[in-house]
């Protein structure tokens, strides 16, 4: 990596941290102004910031410590490298979200102007209430809530709908959190088998429903199906599945962890009763964050309010929603999602361009003899699974660094995010990369392959 670039990045972080030290002076001073000692401290701190900024400009001098504080390293991988990590791509924060963290990092910062009825989704300043309305509209649903990750959206639905022993239809590629959400509610999962292309079809879902009905004498209580799964990034027949759900009268939870925030999602057009998304995976928000949206039909049930009364105090908290434990996302987590939302909405319109870049990258990668794309082709998503057993793994078998040789070579070229040490089956994601970055990354893989004598078509 270019030394000057590395220095500039680290000094940028150092300047940001130095400005936080300036900010701290104001936080512990009186509202009437700084006293003499504080003024001197302020001037010294500003001089330090200016010196660091000069270092950013010329790119010289020594590297800073590279630490936030003792024991915590600066995380500069998004500035230092091209990151193709399969789960991090669409969770990169926007500049607005990063600024939101600086300003709203304090624990209860969203509660500054909380007034009756004292609930998160009713806060008007910052515009939390308005965001909830926009979120529902964005997903073409009636009501929406923010939740601590997609998994808590699953849980809110399963705890609302299931009774002990109820059956739930899931995909054979379902994420483990779907299983846990069913288990915590006392339900039982039944998996839909995949077709020869590792996809879930509407026909297979209908067959599984009939099988459960024949075995138990009753229909499944809920259906949870991913639009794109996390293993292959394959697109499943969610619209057909939504029709099957309606035909059988089974509520359908659409898992949009890899779609909400990166591509257009119309919940009602899909036929979903519930839409779940991930803020930190696909909406450029701080973790843990997610969204849960539903129709008017189910809103009162899933977002039910507490009816419990204290036996000594007779206290009631009727406005608090039970499945959301009253309030969910607070502080920088929520505000980061709100701050990123305008860009997130806009970027969904460019989904076809993102998919095109993914296909372009994989076409180049596939030029390396022995490299196979295990996901459906052409790609309909930017998350993909590849098999390099007959290409890069042949090098790993005799290399002194074994599979880590590929990670070493990529890192030298400023690329990270592939599974370290993996040269057989692994995943990657090109979402959010510029065309130049995509071409550079593809060219780097070809260059490495050529350097180790692998044939290139």
From TrEMBL:
Gene3D superfamilies: Aspartate Aminotransferase, domain 1 (3.90.1150.10), Type I PLP-dependent aspartate aminotransferase-like (Major domain) (3.40.640.10). InterPro entries: PyrdxlP-dep_Trfase, PyrdxlP-dep_Trfase_major, PyrdxlP-dep_Trfase_small, Sep_Cys-tRNA_synth_arc, SepSecS/SepCysS. Its cofactor is pyridoxal 5'-phosphate. Keywords: Protein biosynthesis, Pyridoxal phosphate, Transferase. Pyridoxal 5'-phosphate binds at residues 150-151, 255, 278-280. SUPFAM superfamilies: PLP-dependent transferases (SSF53383). It catalyses: O-phospho-L-seryl-tRNA(Cys) + hydrogen sulfide + H(+) = L-cysteinyl-tRNA(Cys) + phosphate. It comes from the Archaea. It holds the Pfam family SepSecS. Its EC number is 2.5.1.73. Homodimer. Interacts with SepRS. Belongs to the SepCysS family. This is O-phospho-L-seryl-tRNA:Cys-tRNA synthase. It comes from Candidatus Methanocrinis natronophilus. The gene is pscS.
